[in-house]
Each structure stands twice: as C-alpha cells, then as structure tokens.
TrEMBL record, chain A:
Entry-linked InterPro entries: DUF969
Keywords: Membrane, Transmembrane, Transmembrane helix
Name under which the protein is recorded: DUF969 domain-containing protein
Natural source organism: Streptomyces lycii
Taxonomic lineage from the root: Bacteria, Bacillati, Actinomycetota, Actinomycetes, Kitasatosporales
Residue stretches spanning the membrane: 21-38, 50-69, 156-179, 191-211
Pfam families according to UniProt: DUF969
Organism domain of life: Bacteria
From TrEMBL, chain B:
Keyword Phosphoprotein applies: no
Transmembrane domains' residue ranges: 6-23, 35-55, 61-80, 101-124, 136-155, 176-193, 213-238, 259-282, 302-321
Protein name: DUF979 family protein
Pfam families assigned: DUF979
InterPro entries recorded: DUF979 (IPR009323)
Length: 240, 322
C-alpha cells in the first residue's frame, strides 16, 4: 500500500497547482525509494525513462518551419481562407476536422494531424476566423474556449479513430498481451471491428458538443446565431 | 538504412544550437538558466543513444533530468524578447503570398504519410530504407526538413537563423511543458516497477461483488478510466485491469466475447486519457503550444465528452459482449 503515496503526491500536487515537473519528479523519487529501489537505481530509472521516451518530444523539430511561416502570415492566411466558406461556423468546421481526423487515423495516418503540425498553425486560426467573420473580434475568454475545443477535436478524433486500424499500438498491445498470457488466437481485425461503434459514438457526442459551441459563443458575444451584429435584449447578463 | 537515432541527434543538435542562441540573448533576464535547461535537453537527446544501446550508464542522464526539473521548477528559466513581425506586416505578407503559405505547412503531414505508407516498403541493399518500427517518426523528421527547405525557398529566406529563432521563441514560450511528457513516461515506468499497478488491481477486485456481470462491466470500465487518469496511459492500465477483472470475471466466468470486451475496455481507458494532466503530450502540451492561460483548457473541453463516452462504452459492452 505504501507505494501508493506516489499517486497521492501526484494528485495533491496537480490539485494544488504546483509546478508539474516538480510534482512528477518528487512522485517518481518517492515511489522508487518506497518501492525498494536504491537512489542509484532511481537515477538510472529517470535516465532510461528519458532515453526511451524521446519520441514524444520530437514534434519540436516542426517548430522552426511553423514559426517561420507564422512570421509571414500563415495564421492570417488560414483565417482568410475560412472566410470564403460562408456556411462554415466554428462548430461546423471543428466537427468536420473531427471527422477527418477520425477517418485518417482509422487508415493508420496518425501523424497527419497533431497540436504542432495542424492545430496551432491551421485549425485554431481557422476556428477563430470562422467566428470572427460573423461576430467580430473574440474576447479573451472566448478565444481560450475556441482554442481548447480545437485541441479537443484533434485529440478525440485521434483516440477514437486509431483503434479502427489494425496495426496501431493499442490493438497490438491487446493481441500481444492476451495471446501470450492466456494462450489465445485473437486477430487484430476482430478488435478493430469492435472499435467502430465507439468511433461512431465519439463523433456523435463530441460533434454535438462542437456544434453547440457555436451557440455558446454567440450568446457570450452577445449576438444572435443568425450572424447579424445586433445586440439582443439581456445581452448584458449574458456577457458579464 | 536511415536510423531513428540519427533523427534524435538532429533534434538534439537543434536544441543545442538554440541553447547557444539563448546564452547570447541579452533580452532574457534568466538566460544562463534557460540555456542550461535547453543545452542539457539537447545533450540528453544525443547521449540517450548510448543509454538505449547499453553502451553508457543511465545514471548521469537521470541526474541531468533532475537538474532540468530543478531549473524549470525553481524559476531559473525565462524567455527573451520575441523579435517577430507586426500584425500589419503579417497581413500584408499573407495577402502577397496567399495560399503558397500552406505549401510548406502541408508538406510535413504529406511527407510523413508517404514515409509511413510507401517509403516503408522501399528496400535498399538488402535492408529497409527506413529503420523498421520508426517509419512514422522518421517521416515526421524528414517532412520537417523538407518543409523547411521548401518554406525558405517560397519565402525567399536565406538565413537558417531566422526559422531557428522563430522555433526557439515558441519553445521558450512552452518552457517546462516540453519536458513533462517524457518525465511522465518515466514516472509510469517507476510506478510499474514499484508495483503500483498490482495494488490498484487488488483494490478494484476487492470492491467487486460476486456474480453480478453488469456491475463487473462497470467496475472494469471505470477502473480502466481511473487507472489511466492516475498513470496517464491506458497501455499501463490495460494489463492490470484485464488480469484482475476483464479476463477472469468477464470473459472466463461471464462468457463474454473476448474481442468485444477487450477492444472496448481499452477505449474506456482512452476516456480516462482525455481527462488527465498526466497525459501531458495530449492535454498540457497543446495548451502550451496554443498559449492558453488555463493549462487545463483542453481537458475541460474534453471532460463531458469523456464522461458520456464512458457510459456509452459500458452500455455497448453490456449489450453486445454477452
């Protein structure tokens, strides 16, 4: 039971908003020492963990080109392009992106999207642009919301698309674990097929929430969803 | 053969060059600490190659990681003044270049896709051209380099220091968030080695009443989600929860369809991943990249979806797996 103290450190640390690096570092050291590792082995665990998990940090290599393009107006151009599609609201655009992300992930094309590759340079500016065309500049809070939902469309789309693909890590983990531990012959295809109903649910649930975002944003901006900029009665309450 | 390690060296070299830029950046009040953080990160990326192959001890790298943690956690890192274009300059540039701006940006995913699907099958001199199992990350790396070349050509930019400076500004803005996913992966492995998994499995199977299959489905799915929230990773939760409940109770005793139970059990874990700061690369890094004030913004946007989907998952297993 004593090893669970590390879990407690993490929960308390995140809940009290300490620096996450410090929380995780302390939790790792505490759990390792309580779990019977020597200080030297704890150091080695940190080193090996860093070395074997470098793949999650490599998106940094895309930043120089993204930064260069942003200096030359990539985000502005993304906004300009979205303005040409009159019917595309923020919610509709993000729902479209969610569906595309699911479909491409289901074909095994996971790296087609991502926070650094697509969300920051393209998806978030387009989602913001779609709103601003109708309602004028976003308030700080509304901008946070649009960006958060842009990120969520990417993540939900990835999670509930990739498992429909046969050769993705999680499917291979299931077959590997079950076939060796329990002497079974589970095929990746059977598992991938059972992921499809949840993929449909994810599109319906998150898509519906993305579409509702349009109404929330319009209400908070104090203008009706029709697109005209007139201020509705009671807008003072809605925007406070 | 193009090896994944070469690509990690490239990433490490980029961090080291950025660290050198940071050291000379007089506008950053904490330039020494900042340069030390990114320099250690870059050196760690290169040194890791020998740790992975077993040729060098892991302890010095572990010590370096802890130094990075302290540098970031105790406020020794900062950011310099960003030298960038004004809004008007950007708008003018966007009007002039138009959709040509998208060409380099779209090069990254397209090249990554081509590498993962087509180049993967190319063999040269008896071996595959790209290291097996690393096609996706190599594709991302090759795509970024190609995109940078195309981008500099399209924009008529000759100095490599300009994109490096632009990338550095984004990294300085992210700060510690960049290291968090790797540190969490480490925590996950320490949790695993110290037996946290077995403890959680024992507690969950202790609260499970006998003979009620639908309750067991709920415990399995909620357990997957909760365990994933703690560990930040459904992959760590799956073997523990499946060994404790999924296999013995739902499949062997309850006669459930293994493919349905296990595939959707894993997805219950994914619902947990949507809610946890422990899955930093999906939830915290995007908040930093998008420069959000609230680092939990993406999680708040995902929380209701994750809750509804967990219920859907439990209902689907109960209806179709038995």
């Amino acid at each position: 039971m004593i090893v669970l103290i590390g879990v407690l450190v993490v929960i308390v640390g995140f809940a009290t908003k300490r620096n996450p690096l410090l929380v995780v570092g302390v939790a790792g050291i505490a759990t390792g020492l309580l779990g019977g590792l020597s200080p030297r082995e704890v150091l080695a665990a940190f080193g090996e963990g860093f070395a074997s998990s470098r793949a999650v940090t490599i998106f940094a290599i895309t930043l120089p080109v993204i930064g260069l393009l942003e200096r030359h107006g990539l985000q502005e151009q993304a906004r300009n392009v979205i303005h040409r599609f009159a019917g595309l609201t923020t919610g509709r655009f993000l729902t479209l992106y969610l569906g595309l992300r699911q479909l491409t992930a289901a074909l095994g094309l996971n790296s087609l999207g991502g926070p650094a590759q697509t969300v920051r340079p393209l998806v978030a500016p387009m989602a913001e642009g779609a709103f601003e065309k109708r309602h004028g500049p976003l308030s700080g809070r509304a901008r946070e919301k649009v960006r958060s939902f842009s990120s969520s469309a990417d993540t939900v789309g990835l999670f509930f698309g990739e498992d429909c693909f046969l050769a993705v890590g999680s499917i291979l983990l299931i077959t590997g674990f079950v076939n060796t531990t329990y002497d079974q012959h589970l095929e990746p295809l059977q598992l991938a097929l059972w992921a499809i109903p949840m993929a449909v649910c994810a599109f319906l649930v998150h898509g519906a929430r993305l579409l509702r975002l349009d109404r929330t944003l319009a209400r908070e901006a104090g203008t009706g969803p029709g697109g005209s900029a007139q201020v509705l009665t009671g807008a003072e309450e809605a925007t406070k | 053969m193009i090896k994944a390690e070469w690509f990690y060296w490239l990433v490490g070299a980029v961090f080291l060059v950025m660290a050198a830029q940071m050291l000379r950046d007089g506008s950053n009040p904490r330039r020494y600490g900042t340069a030390a953080f990114w320099g250690l990160l870059g050196a760690g990326f290169v040194y890791s190659s020998w740790v992975v192959s077993g040729a060098a001890p892991a302890e010095p790298l572990g010590a370096a990681v802890l130094v990075m943690v302290c540098l970031a956690a105790f406020g020794f890192t900062g950011r310099g003044r960003v030298r960038t274009t004004t809004g008007a300059e950007r708008a003018a540039s966007a009007a002039r270049l138009g959709n040509k701006l998208f060409l380099p940006a779209l090069t990254i995913p397209v090249v990554a896709m081509v590498c993962a699907v087509l180049v993967k099958k190319v063999h040269l001199g008896g071996g595959p051209l790209l290291e097996e199992g690393s096609e996706t990350i190599l594709g991302l790396g090759i795509g970024s380099v190609v995109a940078l070349v195309i981008g500099m050509a399209v924009l008529g930019e000759r100095r490599i220091s300009v994109p490096l400076h632009a990338g550095r500004s984004m990294l300085e803005a992210m700060g510690w968030a960049l290291l968090l996913p790797q540190l969490l992966a480490t925590l996950g492995s320490i949790f695993q080695a110290s037996g946290v998994g077995e403890q959680v499995g024992r507690i969950t199977s202790a609260v499970l009443p006998d003979g009620m299959i639908h309750v067991a489905v709920v415990v399995y799915c909620v357990g997957m989600a909760l365990f994933t929230i703690v560990m930040g990773n459904a992959f760590a939760a799956f073997p523990v929860m499946t060994a404790a409940i999924g296999w013995p109770v739902l499949i062997e005793a309850g006669g459930g369809n293994p493919a349905a139970v296990l595939a959707m059990g894993m997805l219950a874990g994914f619902c947990g991943t949507l809610c946890t700061p422990m899955a930093a690369n999906f939830n915290i890094v995007p908040a930093a990249l998008l420069e959000l004030k609230d680092q939990y913004g993406p999680i708040k946007a995902q929380l209701p979806t994750a809750g509804v989907l967990l219920v859907c998952d439990i209902v689907l297993i109960s209806l179709f797996a038995f």
